Amino acid sequence: MIPDQVQGPAIQVRDLQKSYDKLHVLRGVDFDVARGSIFALLGSNGAGKSTVVKILSTLLKADAGTARVHGFDVAKQAANVRESISLTGQFAAVDEILTGRENLMLVAQLRHLKGAGKIVDDLLARFSLTDAAARKVSTYSGGMRRRLDIAMSLVGNPPVIFLDEPTTGLDPQGRIEVWQSVKELAGRGTTVLLTTQYLDEAEQLADRIAILHEGRIIVNGTLSDLKRLLPPAKVEYVEQQPTLEDVFLTLVGAGANRDARNVGTDK
Length: 267
Known about the structure:
Number of helices: 9
CATH superfamily: P-loop containing nucleotide triphosphate hydrolases
Number of strands: 10
Helix content: 25-40%
Strand content: 15-25%
Strand order of the largest sheet: 6-7-8-3-9-10
CATH architecture: 3-Layer(aba) Sandwich
CATH class: Alpha Beta
């Protein structure tokens, strides 16, 4: 039997409002996120995406409206919410002086988890970081750092994770590595709320997409739902040119993908 507090949507937001002085950032935001799904909050810079995440993760108080995460009210049950979530910000919060393993062990110890060694080993394997576990994070590529950052967020197995523009500043290969990790999260039952300004990222990852514009959700649905908002494209027979991504992945290939995960040294 599922306890009452974890029934229903993983995240439920109703009429959320937030202003900074005379600047109205959120003007009545509503959405639900189903358990075990990836929900993308899409919008341009300044649309209010990070403000939503800060409110849902109890870092900021809303002016009006309600929000529940994992069944808990973010304003009245903040401690319960914090025990149920993990937040990964726009920049990897890793300690470059420590190794990958030491970063994960530190989080496990701070959370007083039993069997920390096995937990760390499992996460290193899950995010393809085992071979780099003994290296200092300062030697990691951008994609490896971000994967480590997400792995650190999963220590303790939180049911809900917020990813606030997780691929900002990453090269194309690093972005693809992070996308694979995010898909795996949902595949294991974790609920993911992802904020992004990249259209292709939302298209690749999300079960549902909400577009936040001028403080309001202007559309919310599956990718198919959103595509049906526009008239069908006129079919013309033209020579299909490869995209830049096609060229990049063809030239780089699977071998370089493995190298980027295990040997990358760019900062």
